[in-house]
Amino acid sequence: QRLITDRNHVMADRADHYLDEGGVFMAVGALHLPGNEGVIELLRKKGFTLSLVN
């Protein structure tokens, strides 16, 4: 769990700069998505709006 959670924080922090510039498509593995410390929630806490793409 620590490996996943720590990587989630690293990915969210690194993506922050690129997402601020806009026009970004970001894909991550399914294990990094759910929960309060998943990449989705971490980016939302940073103020980003995320949308599901089907």
In short:
It is built from two helices and no strands.
Please give the alpha-carbon distance between the first and last residues: 28 Å
Give me the count of strands.
0
How much helical structure, as a percent, in the residues? 40-55%
Counting helices, strands and paired strands, the structural category is mainly alpha
**Count of structural domains:** 1
Topology:
Blueprint: H1 2-21, H2 39-45
Helix pairs in contact: 1-2
Protein traits:
2 helices; 54 residues; 50% helix; mainly alpha; 0% strand
Detailed description of the structure:
With 54 residues, the protein is an all-alpha fold. The chain has one domain (2-45). It contains 2 helices and no strands. It has helices spanning 2-21, 39-45. Helix 1 (2-21) packs across helix 2 (39-45). The longest helix has 20 residues, at 2-21. It starts with a helix and ends in a 9-residue tail after the last helix. The model has no long low-confidence stretch (mean pLDDT 91).
